[in-house]
Structure formats: structure tokens, C-alpha cells
Amino acid sequence: MKITFPHMGTMAIPAKALFEELGFDVILPPPITKKTLDLGVKHSPEFACLPLKMNVGNYIEALELGADTIIMGGGVGPCRFGYYGEVQKEILRDLGYEFEMIIFEPMQGRWKDFYKKVRSLLGKMSLLKLKSAWDKGWAKAKAVDRLDSLINKTRPYLIDPKKGTQIYKEGLSLVDESNDIKNIEKSVDLIEGRLNCLKRKKNFKPLKVGLVGEIYVVLEPFTNLNIEEKLGELGVLVDRSIFLTDWIKEHMALNLFRDLKHNRNVREAAKPYLNHFVGGHGIESVGETVLYSREGYDGVIHLLPFTCMPEIIAQSVLPTISKEKDIPVLSLSVDEHTGDAGFVTRLEAFIDLLARKKEEVVV
Amino acid sequence: MSFKIGIPKALLYYKYYRGWNKFFEELGCEVVNSDKSTKDIVDKGVSLSVDEACFPVKLFLGHVDYLKDKVDYLFIPRVISVQPREYLCPKFMGLPDMVRHNIDRIPPIIDTTINMRSRKRDLLKSAFEVGDILGKGYIEVTKALFKALRELRRYKKEMLDKSHDRFDYKIGLLGHEYIIYDPHVSMNLIKKLRKMGVDVITSEMVDDQILEEQAKGFSKDMFWTLSKSMLGSAYHFFERDDIDGIIQLTAFGCGPDSLVGEMVERESKRRRSQPFISLNLDEHTGEAGLVTRLEAFIDMIRWEGA
Predict the structure, then answer these.
(1) Is B91 part of the contact surface with chain A (CB cutoff 8 Å)?
(2) Would you state the CATH architecture of domain B162-305?
(3) Taking the model in full, what pTM does it have?
(4) What is the predicted ipTM?
């Protein structure tokens, strides 16, 4: 059994560790390129959202490399993601690929169901081994998330931000190569030290921007055209509202998640504007925007895939928040036609606006 | 005091209007439905909503705008689910919010949550909430609700008996009610087809039991109620020998349709049982282009039949 799964930002690092630790051969899809996108777009329904198309591109490239089992997440709606697996299966079957697809439906709080599904995949594997594999994957997921937030906090201050990005990437491969949990944490500490040694601008106060939106396009730099890096290089401090570990918690439905304090705060903050869960991360986008405005951020950027249903609801509500809370919000929808130049122009214009607004306040 | 309740003629109106109208009339309210969709309403809706919203939602906002100065309350429920373990599309969950944040100076909205995801009888709770807003007692509301439900059942039965034998050809029409029954959006598609001598069957004319039976065959339960009946009727149409072709109407930007439509299209290609065409409609669709494609499709069916 040669396992593969779609990319989503840095997810491949912990996921690969998890499955390899369990004793499977993992064939990663090649890093996402224009070719991946083109393959996905060519074979997917025209009006499907971007993540579905990217997944299809990933699968095709991985199957060509010899993978025969695809691991995918599922869902019970109302977001389209829950039905991705079914449609993708049909697309690949019609293309003539032979493969097995294992779709993990969220277990809605029942460990037993999840265990059964895992059993079907693993056969007679000891729980102990499963736990140690999970621990390792989880440690790596936490590590890449920490790296992401480290680089975002550092980049705007650097005289040479490109150097910072380079160290960050080295950090990712270090985590990828680390074999035991202690090493994983050590390598992140090491990277933190190296980032701290870089030369910084003096007396510099960056603009602060919050990043909200649909998780796939927020996490996958290919689809958001490296927005965090671009903003960092413009001297903007980016705070991402959503991380890989959040998604894992949510998807594996560690049912404690819904009660987590931050999550409650988000719902509470969204309440005056959007008082009900709308699938995907719609309510989170709204709530986090309100929270950013309270925490004194200069602006919020809202990322969504073109035609994303939950995020369109958020997008309809955000202008009101922007007006009432006096915080500029830029909604950017991305799809296969999004061009780098147009994207950068809009980002720069937005940042200019934020800078001018801040000056006015100071004067 | 009798209130004027505005119900926009869009989206779920087409599925439930007989029930909704009955419910409010029984409670002694005056129901005001918006006018039929017109170009003005469409244009207004397009200008009010975010660019990316699907065409039906844009149209809905246009209808709300038409109604807003004419009524005391707008009835825009937050419909989460109308079937146990299923959902509707997310946009129905955020509909009152999309209206509130995109249209200025609107009357109070009755945005009661309707959620039958766990139990069907939760509908009664929602009805009571509406009653509270209007100052009506539990008994009155329960009575009104039962009358409304009976009205809906009657409507469903009327729809079932609607297919005819006097036409030469029969076509299965797939699509959301709010698209195929809105004469402006669908450009009178059903009337046009009948004029060409083609009878039309929609999923409302198929027994729910049959749809449910068909839907059991999918590898994963469909979690959108409306799409489930679309998928079920597609499979039902594939198997019926008396249906000569299938037309699928979708609206621009419809999320569930983008996936379900694809499933139907692929299955139809695999089965090769009937000719199949998918038409995507939006505010820019021109009537001439639509008619040309329809005529070509019907010609093809005639050749096949000959």
C-alpha cells in the first residue's frame, strides 16, 4: 500500500511522519506548481471551489508516481468539502486510475467510530504504536505552526526579509527530517535563535494586519500567492487567525475543541453580526475580524476561494464590521485566474491606505 | 392588529409558499408577496449583493428591496435543515444576515431559526417563536402550523398528478425550484418546451419515496436536502424508458450544483441512456442563446426517436 494525500500548506510534514511511523510507504504529491493547478482545473467541475481542483492535481501527480491509496478528509456539510472525496473519486475513476480512497469522516465526538476506521486502515496494529505515531505527527504539526508564527513575527523587522524566509524554509526541512520528538522541538529553538540573530531595522513600528478566511487558501501559499511573505517584505506584521493544528483538532473533532476559550470568544464576537454557524470558517472569519479590531490591528485581509459558500456570507457581513469598528477590511477571492501582478497591486494599495490612516490618527 | 408580512418571491418561496402563506393568514396577518421577478428586480439585487454571491441570492435581495417599504415584517427564516441529519446550502443559514448587512432601512425581520436536523418536531418550536413575535398564543400557532402543513401536502399531491400523456416527448428537468419555476430566471423554459410539444417532468412530480429509494444507492449520503432530491431524480430519470432526454438547469455560483451537477453529468455519460444537456443561468443569460440550444437539443431527441 502506497499512501498519498493532498497538500495543504505545511501539512505534508506531520502527515508524512504519522503514516511512516505507522509503517506505510508514503508517496508525497510533488510540490504544487502551475502544472498541478492546470491538471486540477482541466479535470474538475468548472464551478467547483479551488481547493477541490488543487486536490485533484495533487492526486494525479501522486498516482503517476505510483501511489495507490489516497487518504482524504470528509464531512457532514454544509460546506462543499464534505463531498469532495466522492466527486474526486469519480473524476479519477473516469480518468482510468486504479486506486483506493479512504475518507475519514469527522467522528462527531465518538472515539469508537474513529478507531474502527483506523482499524480498517491499519489492520491489527497496537494502540501503543498508533499513539506514538500520533504523538510524533502532532509534535511536527505544532512545530511547523510555531515556525509559521515565528517567521511572521520576525519578517517585517528584518533588513533582509529574504534571509529570514530562507532560514524558515531550512527550519521546515529540519522538522521534516527530525526523528524523535525532542529533536523536533530543538530544531525549532535553533531556528528561533538564528532568526533572532538577523539584523533588524531600528525604531521601526510595523503595521499590523490580521489574516482571516477559508483555511485551505489561508494555509496554502501557492493559492494565496505567498501573501504572508509578500506582506512581511512590505514591512507588515501578519497575524494568521488559523493554523494547521486548529484544523486537525477541529477535523478530528476532539470534541473539547468547541469549548475552547478562544473559540467561544470568536463566536461571542461574531454574534452581533452573524449569529449562527454557516459551515466552513464563515463565522470564524467574522468573529476574528471583530477580535482584531479590538486588539488594535490596523487592518484585516480576508481570503476566500471564488464561490466559497460560507465565506461569501462572511464577505457580505464584513463591510458592516469595517464601518462600525473603523477597521479596513480587504476581501480577496482567489481562483485559477488570480494573477500575481493584480494581487500585489491591491495589497500595496491596501497597505498604503492603512499607513495613511495611521498617520492621520497620530497627527 | 393585523400585520403585513412580506415574503420575497425567491429561493425557498417556491418550495414552501403555500404553507407559509397559509400559516400567516391563519394567524390573521396579511401576506404580501413580492412581484414576479423582473429585470429591475434582478438589477437591483445584483447591485446590492457581493459580486460572488450566487445568482439566486442576488435575486432574493432584489425581491427584499422591492418589499421593504410595503410591509411591517419581512419573513426570512434562517433555514438550517428541513430533514433529519441533512442541511441546506450554507447560504440559507446566513440569509437574514446577508439581507441585513446589504440593504438599508429594512423593516424588522422574522429570522426564526428552522432546524430539523435532529428532530422534525422542532419545527413547532420555530413556529412558536414566530408566534411570540406576532403576539399569538400557542394553541393558535399550533393550529395554524397544522393547517399550513396540510396545505403543503396538498400542494405536493397536486404536483404529482401533473404529468401528461398528450405530448410526443418527455423530458426530465433537473434544477432547484427557485430556478425552474421563476419564469424570468428560467425564461419560461417549461412553457417553451411544452410549446415545442415536449412534456416536462421535474423532481416535485416524482414521489418522495422513489427519490429516497434512489438516494440510498449513493456511496455517501448526500447531506444537502435539495441536492439529494436532485441526485435522486436524476437517477430515477436515467432508469425511466419514457423519458427521452434530461435538461439540467443550474444557476451561476451555486455551490452544491457545482458538485452534484458534475456527478449527474458523469453518470449520464457512463450510462448513455438519454441525451443530456446542462444549462447555466445568470443575470447575463440571453434568451436567444438559450432558445437556440434548446431547439438543437430537442431536434437531437427527435432524431434519436425517429
Answers:
(1) yes
(2) 3-Layer(aba) Sandwich (3.40)
(3) 0.92
(4) 0.91
